[in-house]
Every structure is written in structure tokens, then in C-alpha cells.
Amino acid sequence: MKHIDIAEIFKNSSLINTTVTVCGWIRTARDSKNMAFLEINDGTSLKHLQVVIDKASEINVANLKSGCSVKVEGILVPAAVNTGSVEINATQITLLGDCPGDYPLQKKKSTLEFLRTLPELRLRTNTFNAVFRVRSVVSSAIHNFFQSRNFVYINTPLITGSDCEGAGEMFRVTTNGYDHPYHSEEEYYANDFFGKKAGLSVSGQLEGEVAAMAMGKIYTFGPTFRAENSNTPRHLAEFWHVEPEVAFAELPDVIELAEDMVKYIVNTVFEKCPTELDFFERFFEKGLKEKLKNVAESKFEVLEYTRAIEILKSADVDFKYPVEWGCDLQTEHERYITEQVFKKPVFVTNYPKAIKSFYMKQNADGKTVAATDLLVPGVGEIIGGSEREANMDKLLKAMEDKGMSIDAYQDYLALRKYGTAPHGGFGLGLERIVMYITGMSNIRDVILYPRTVGNLR
Ligand code: ATP
Ligand code: MN
Asked: Residue 353: phi, psi to the nearest 5?
């Protein structure tokens, strides 16, 4: 169907005073004595296009209701009210799809909770229109950032036989039916599709390391699955995960890469989505643009875990979870540090080894590992990363300490046997950074179909 995007209509001033054809869904329809007005939107732009209809014309305005899809032909003119914008004086309107009166989006303002019950329609609202354009620009910025730095884009497997981080969080993959005849777990898996226990990957890191130890600098960007059995505003069972992995890199290099990436993403959104940022500033987070400008311009804080614990212990706050050296930081602690103390993104580094994964590089103090989490105001953790343990003996010892099966990790261990090298990387949750940039406070509102415990629509 030949037509012009509404985004293009607003951008291209040479279209003024020419005949144009646009398509879209009617957001509002207004009627006065001699004229009728439609606001239409085709999804390419947050701003709607006004269509002006002379009621003396052939056009049947009675059929044009909110939710209908239409094709409009007319002359593009400067807006009658002097806004610097444009509108269409319609010469012909074709009703492409009617929309009955029970259209759920007719109310002027629907809550986000209500809209979550309408995943099939909510993208037609301004809020979701803006969220998903920003999400797309963030994704593209991530690729551009890594591609421009000679990183190779790698697709790691989604079905895995090993379990990178927590067994409890892994979804099982099986073709065995409910009514299986097996008598033991062993027998069950031996007769399953792969002949062994399989699951959906909770991280592409282990395979990412395989690629990095040959290609030097790689990144993955794909879905990750975690059976998070908790209902929080920042956890999904299926999320999009960006995982760079770099050979010949130590923890400070990992931190620098993460900081550069976040700044690059923020700058790109400033450049490509100014209207959307204005929208989020106005309706979702006062001070959003100032916050993001600060992110782009200031140096992120780097804070030792041990120091973070001292700060938390001396804080004049009643935390639900008490703080002691050795404990994992809870969201309330993370948010206190980044929101109250530093008021900007903070890398917490060198966590106790007991609370972190087996593959993290063990520091000389014998107590901590070279890990880092990036905490940001409003969300908490958006990035988790580390330098990896490159020493075979230390790695084996850590796996033994954690009671892991060495057998399942032969590929991973081989990287330490054949030309081992310092290397590291991190994981960024795409939805977490989209939340941070848009000011949306629930992760369910930044992904098309959120998968959470007990919820699969
Ligand atoms: P959290 O402490 O928030 O549960 P984590 O420490 O389990 O996160 P990592 O294993 O370090 O997370 O994963 C790297 C990144 O992936 C996190 O920093 C976060 O941005 C994102 N992430 C992790 N789990 C989820 C999830 N369930 N839903 C959405 N994003 C997630
Ligand atoms: Mn983490």
C-alpha cells in the first residue's frame, strides 16, 4: 500500500503543500459544526497527525471512530493553529478496519496495570509506543557500540547441558511425556531427547568465553531464561541479555567497557529519541533527562564491596535485611548506595567469593573475587560482570568447594589448559537498561509479552 510514514511527514518539509497519503489508527475523533478532526498514528512517531475534514465533502465522518484503521489522502499544510506543525486537509478517507464500541483503549487514561491485561493492544498507547521505540534504539546502539570496536557478534546456544549459575533457576528442556515409564532420574534423562538432562541457558557466558579465547573480543545478544520464582518489578523468566567477553582483559578493563557502553547507549537515545525522552520526563520521571545527562557526562563511582558494607552499616536506615561483611547486597542496599549516597551509577567491586560464581577470578586476599555489579538509581543492578579465573588449579579448587561436577565443564576447563589468558566480561539485561532510560518502574512494561512466575500469555 503506497503511503508515507507519519514520522516522515513531520520531518520532511518539502512535502508541505503536496498531496500525501498516510495510513494509521484513529486515536481521537472530534466533531464540530462544519469540520471534523482526527488524530491518527501509524506507530512510526510518538506525535499524532491531525487530519482535518470539511463536512461538506463526500467523506462520511460517522464511520470514523477511535481505534479504526484508515487510509487518508489529502494536502499537507502548516497547522491552522500556529504550532509550527503540519496537518492534512483530507480529500479522501478509506476505512480499512472498523472498530466496535467496546475498544478497550478509548478511555483517556488507562493504568499500566490495566494495560498489562491487554498485551495485544497496549502498544497503541503513547507510553508503549515510546517504550518500544527506545528499546529498539537501545538494541541498535548496543550492536553499533560493539561492532565499532571490533567485537564479533556470537550466538551462543539456548539449550544447554551445563548450568552456568543456579540449578534452581534453570528451566528443564524435555520431550518426555507426563506418563513416562521410568523409575529413576537417571533412567528418565537417559531416555530423553539428548540422552541427558538439558535446560534453557541462564547465560551465554561459558560459551562466550570459548569464542573470546579465539576471536579476542565477542558479544552475545539474545534471550536468557531464568525460573526466577519471585515476583519483583525487575525480574523476568525470559529476558534479553547482552554479554561481551574479552580476552586479555582484567577487571578495570571490564569496568571501563561497561561504563563506555552505558554512556554510548544513553547518548544515542538522546540523539535519536528526544521526543520520547521529553514524554518520559513529563509523565514518568521528573528529572529524567538531567539524570541521563549526568550519566553521559560524569565518571561512574567505583566502590569496593568492603567499603559498601561499611557505608551501609553506618547508614541511619532500618534495612529489612541486616548487613554484615559476607552478605549479598539486597535491592534495598543497592538502591541506598546508588540513590542516597552517590546519586549516580556505582560499580561495586571485589565481592566475597562465597556469594559469587565459581568462575570469578580469586583475588590475592583469599577472600574476595574480581567481580563487579553496576548499580543505578531507580533500578539497582543492571550489569553483573567479572574477570574470570584463568588459573586451572584455582578454578578446579573453586568448583570442588562449590560441589560442582567437573565432568560437565570439560570444554570450559580446556580453555585454561590450552593457552589460558586473563579475560573477563559482563552481562547486561536489556530490559533493565530500558527501564533506567525510560523511567518505567516495572520490567513487565518494557517487554512485549512478559514471562513471569504463573503468567504465560
Ligand atoms: P539480580 O541480582 O538482579 O537477580 P543477577 O545477579 O542474578 O541479578 P546476573 O547473573 O549478574 O544477574 O546477570 C547479569 C544481568 O542480567 C543482571 O545485571 C541484570 O541486568 C540481568 N538480569 C538477571 N536476571 C534477570 C531477570 N530475571 N530478569 C531480567 N534481567 C535479569
Ligand atoms: Mn549479578
From this structure: -70, -25
